[in-house]
Amino acid sequence: MRISIFNYGVGNLYSLQAALKREGVEPYLASDIRRASDADALLLPGVGNFSEAARKLPLDEIRDLVRSGKPLLGVCLGLQLFFERSDEGPGRGLCLLPGRVKRLPSIVKVPQIGWNVLKIKHHNGLVAGLPDRSWVYYVHSYYPVTRGPWVIATSEYGLEYPSLIANKNIFGTQFHPEKSGSTGRTILRNFLRLIRK
Amino acid sequence: MPLAKRIIPCLDIKGGRVVKGVHFRGLQDAGDPVELSIRYRDEGADEIVFLDITASLEQRSTLTSLVKRIAENLDIPFTVGGGIRSMSDARAVLCSGADKVSVNTAAILRPKLVSELASVFGSQCVVVAIDAKRVGGKNGQWFEVFSHSATKPTNLEAGKWAKQAEELGAGELLVTSIDRDGTKLGYDVELLSHITSQVNIPVIASGGCGSLLHFVEVFTEANCDAALVASLFHYAELSVKQAKEYLMSKGVLVRP
């Protein structure tokens, strides 16, 4: 199994690669669509900000690839890019799902940094084996606003927001599975199992 | 609010090994950073801070290879601090797998470093560490920031510097009380409350932890988000697990 991690910014891509390697997958970094599309699945990591990512990524090509059935996992900003727009700045995202990205309310400390619980709303293979209220690690200032059966889990911080999304071959987490200990490991394993089918 | 309060063990690193001070007389080898951090994770640590106390030029490459080894094995977040002076120092550490870098003296000498780091890597990666000490007489007492491993007074007021760091783009503050560091008398609740009242970013408390009660204080009275602990855990006087069980019994939300 090969997974391509889109390399569109600067920051920690190493942890995500390491987490996948621990599950026996060979991830590789790709910065163009041709190299990325060779993989069995695409991974959009969470580095940098929305506008810069929207500017640097070959969004049309990624959208076509995903619509043709290629599995996609978005982590943090990678998930936010599934939507159309973000309060973080100008630019259009992948527009794979209806919704937009907003800044966390200032009644709480922003960024949210730390461990928070998942409230599971719908059954999905991505959360198989996870008890409700499992702990995951967050580092973010923005959150997606979207409604629909693809909202598999939510978390609460100042307000309730979608934290785990799954719709056919599209998967996303607002938290960092690669930093979420055993819960994160379960989610990554579930993802790999789902895309092997 | 379901966001858990965090317990963060801090490991001092020298030449790629964990070291601990022995009665202020030199440093003793305390083991492998990867093994120790995994042990803390298994006990329930929420994050780990690695503080490189060598920070000499020739050993920077030792540090980046260590950071890679940690990232390969540790599945909770970790911060690397000590001797991060420039964008390229930060880049080397972050691209090797660290989740955050902490900057202290370099940010005081050149505050723009904080905004540069935040704009390139994102605020969430940038921890500004502040070492503060009570100065002045009884009537005019205030908290002064010290640089260069807490040796040089800067004339900066800690609350003001905290606010400025937030405005520059820091995602988190790590605030150490120089007065309390190593005393086990408890965190400086007054200092920490002063800081948390000035900013709207998470604050990690450091310096002085000596008992289970001190954890409760720093979360409930000082409104801190995380508690950093060094010696207490190394010398096995207390474990992360004990601290968390106690906090839970006192109604403080922690990740079990």
Low-pLDDT runs of 5+ residues of chain B are: none
CATH fourth-tier homologous superfamily of chain B: Aldolase class I
CATH architectural arrangement of chain B: Alpha-Beta Barrel
First-residue to last-residue Cα separation of chain A:
12 Å
Task: Give the total of beta strands of chain B.
Answer: 12
List the helices and strands and how they pair.
The complex is a heterodimer of chains A (197) and B (256).
Chain A: E1 2-6, H1 14-22, E2 26-30, H2 33-37, E3 41-44, H3 50-56, H4 59-67, E4 72-75, H5 77-80, E5 85-86, E6 100-103, E7 112-117, E8 119-120, E9 135-140, E10 142-145, E11 151-156, E12 160-167, E13 170-173, H6 181-196
Parallel strand pairs in A: 1-2, 1-3, 3-4, 4-13, 5-6
Antiparallel strand pairs in A: 6-10, 7-9, 8-11, 11-12, 12-13
Chain B: E1 6-14, E2 17-21, E3 27-31, H1 33-43, E4 48-52, H2 60-73, E5 78-81, H3 87-94, E6 100-103, H4 105-109, H5 112-121, E7 126-135, E8 142-147, E9 152-157, H6 158-168, E10 172-177, H7 189-196, E11 203-206, H8 212-220, E12 226-229, H9 231-234, H10 240-249
Parallel strand pairs in B: 1-4, 1-12, 4-5, 5-6, 6-7, 7-10, 10-11, 11-12
Antiparallel strand pairs in B: 1-2, 2-3, 7-8, 8-9
Helix pairs in contact in B: 1-2, 8-10
Task: Walk me through the structure.
The complex is a heterodimer of chains A (197) and B (256). Chain A is α/β, with parallel strands linked by helices and 197 residues long. Chain A has helices at 14-22, 33-37, 50-56, 59-67, 77-80, 181-196; strands spanning 2-6, 26-30, 41-44, 72-75, 85-86, 100-103, 112-117, 119-120, 135-140, 142-145, 151-156, 160-167, 170-173. Chain A has one domain: Rossmann fold (3-Layer(aba) Sandwich). Chain B has a single domain (6-249), classed as TIM Barrel, CATH 3.20.20.70. Chain B contains 10 helices and 12 strands. In chain B, strands 1-4-5-6-7-10-11-12 form an 8-stranded parallel barrel, surrounded by 8 helices. In chain B, β10, α7 and β11 (203-206) form a beta-alpha-beta unit. Chains A and B meet through α1, β7, β9 and α6 of A and α2 of B.
